[in-house]
Amino acid sequence: MHEISLVRNMLSSLEDVFPGRVPQVKRIQLTAGILSNVQPILIKNALDAVAADSPQYAHIKLEVVILPILIHCEACGKTSEVIDYKFVCSCGEPSTNIIQGEELHISQVEFADDEILQV
Q1: SS3 label, residue 39
Q2: What is each CA distance from 64 to 32, 42, 85, 86, in whole angstroms?
């Protein structure tokens, strides 16, 4: 289950970026493109599992925002959403120029004092 290592890495990154402030973290927003292969329920369960072993993380809520796959077509210049993993522009031309959908990053961190930081 790669979600456990993802959660551990996410928390480790927060410790590095916000030294001493992780106990004050109330909510983490994780942005994941469809191609990152992150399932929201699995990553939330992984956070619960990590928190069971490391109670200092038990208070943190995780929100996962899933982004669709977007491609840019060189033939017509349009940006189209990939449907059913068919990498074809709305004009009918195939495209592998992915401009969104592979992301996996912490996008927001909310602290107990309601401070929200875009990361």
Answers
A1: coil
A2: 7, 11, 21, 24
In this structure, the strands spanning 104-111 and 116-118 are: antiparallel
What beta strand segments (E) does 22-92 contain? 25-33, 61-67, 70-72, 79-81
**Tens digits of residue pLDDT in 38-49:** 999 999 999 999
Provide DSSP, 74-114. Answer: TTT--EEE-BTTB-B-TTS-B---EEES--EEEEEEEETTS
Tokens 């456990």 belong to 4
pTM to 2 decimal places? 0.85
